[in-house]
Each structure stands twice: as C-alpha cells, then as structure tokens.
Amino acid sequence: MARISPLTVLGVALVGGLWLAERARPLRRQTHSTASRQARNLALGAGTMLVVTAIEMPLLIRLAKGNIRARRGLVQVLPLPRPLQIVLGVAAMDYAFYWWHIATHKVPFLWRFHRVHHIDPDMDMTTALRFHAVDMLVSLPFRVAQVVLSGADVRILMAHRRFFEASVLFHHSNLALPGRWDENLPRLPPTPKMHGVHHSKVWDEMNSNWTSGLSLWDRLHRTLRSQPQERIEIGVADAASLADLSLGNSLTAPFRATPAPLPPGAVSLR
After folding, report:
1. Which of 73, 48, 54 is nearest to 144 (CA)?
2. Residue 20: count of CB within 10 angstroms of its CB
3. Beta bridge partners of 234
C-alpha cells in the first residue's frame, strides 16, 4: 500500500480548514449561486490540473535537473549557502511571476485566456482553480524561462510551487481576517482583502495588487492599492462577462473576439 506523505496530510488539513473558515467568516456577500459557480470552477480546474500534471511539471522538472548539470541560472552561478539558494530561488521565481501576471492583463492575446479567471462574479477558494487549460499551455514559454533563468533545481521548484499554491488558495478565499491580521499580513503574502481589489470590475483597481506570492513586489513597484470591500464589485466590466460564465462559454471565450470594456457605471446584461 502506498504511503501518504505528511505534507499531503497537512495540505489536505489546511485546505479543509480554509474551506470551513471562509464559510464561518465571509469577507464579501456572494452574489451568485455558490454551488453552480463552484462546480464550473472545479470543472475548469480539473482541465488545468491535467495540463499541469501531464505536460508542465514533467518538463519543468527535467529543466530543473538540467540547471544543476549545466550550472545554469542565477542560483547555480552564485556561491551561496544552501538555505540562501532556496530563498533566492523561490524569490526569483516569484518576482518573475509578478511580471508575467501583469503581462496577462496588458497583452491582448494573453488577456483572452486570463479573462476566464477574472469573470468569476464572486471569489472563494475555487476561484483559484478557475483557469482555462489552454492558458497553461500558453504560459509554458514563460515557465521555461522562469526555471532556466532562476537556476531553480527540483527542490527549489517544488518549494516555490507549494508556496505559490498555498498563497493563491489563501488570497482567493472569501475569508475575513481579524483586523490586526489584515493590517500586518500584507507585508508578507497577499490577503483575501488585498487580492479582492485586483478582481474588481473597476479597471484601475484591477490593474493593481499583482503579486501572487510576496507582496514585497507590489510595494517595491508602488502597485499596492487598498479599497473597502463593500465597495468592490467582483468580475470583469465588459459586455459578455455574464454570458461567458457558463462552462461551455468559458471554454470558447478565448477563441472569440474579446469584448470591449464597458464605460464606468454601465451594467452587463448579457
């Protein structure tokens, strides 16, 4: 019988605890049917995980092993103690993702796919899974460059992956943190309140709070923004966002013309 690792048990426990916590202390009132919305998000997430498991991770692991053999990338060329190598490698990969996230909003071709994530009209843990499977394929050149240039080995790659996944699940959740926690935690990982601003329908608000791991990058580049949660409407302000919520339309949306943004105050009726 295969043994279940302690990390797997811990991960399941943390996910379960977060799932219960966001129901006990909701940050925002849900505006759409939770069950049907979560079912769509999980279905999209299943396709995404298939691509990540079958294609992305085997490729990245092979590249990470090659970094050691070829002494390739930032971490491999700097004579640092092992703990500092891991910290630097994770930070370098996280910083690269900060810029990639901006690109997925600014480059029209990339936004076609990333928009599927943003049209979710509410946020909870399942929003973290709501990505188009082709989005993962489109991001492969970036992921290859991220691993090669950072010099990440397999341990650093997996450390970053675990940190990234935990952070993404946490800051997409609908969990209202106690006051002091919400004031202090943004100095490290982004909080649900912080990332909620990024999912706002207001374009200026969406174009902020880009970080997915360390909020240091938003502070460094002055892209950190706060906003009372009761004034935030989650989603995308374009004419087709509501129609594209269905699973079928979410899958085909990137291959249709990208809807133009609605003017401030307009409401999507489709």
Report:
1. 73
2. 11
3. 200
Give the number of domains in the chain.
1
Write out pLDDT tens, residues 139-157: 999 999 999 999 999 999 9
DSSP 137-198: HHTHHHHHHHHHHHT--HHHHHHHHHHHHHHHHHHHS-B---HHHHHHGGGSSPPHHHHHHH
Asked if residue 40 is part of any domain, the answer here is: no
Three-class SS of residue 53? helix
The most distant pair of C-alpha atoms in the chain lies apart, rounded to whole Å, by 59
Closest-CA residue to 247 (of 48, 40, 32): 40
- Show the domain range for 88: 80-130+154-255
Which alpha helices (DSSP H) does 107-138 contain, by range? 108-118, 133-138
Beta bridge partners of 175: 26
Query: Is 92 among the domain residues?
Result: yes
Determine the Cα–Cα distance for residues 206 and 130; give it in Å rounded to an integer.
Answer: 17
What amino acid occupies position 193? K
Torsion over CA: 211, 216, 218, 224 (sign)? positive
What's the rounded Cα separation, in Å, for the pair 247 and 25? 28
- Residue 192, in any domain of the structure: yes
Tell me, what's the pLDDT at 23? 86
In a domain, 51, yes or no: no
CA nearest neighbour of 169 among 51, 35, 17: 17
Contact at 8 Å (CB) between 17 and 124?
no
If DSSP codes are grouped into helix, strand and coil, which group holds residue 261? strand
Residue 222 is inside which H or E element, if any?
Answer: none
Q: What is the mean pLDDT of the chain?
A: 89
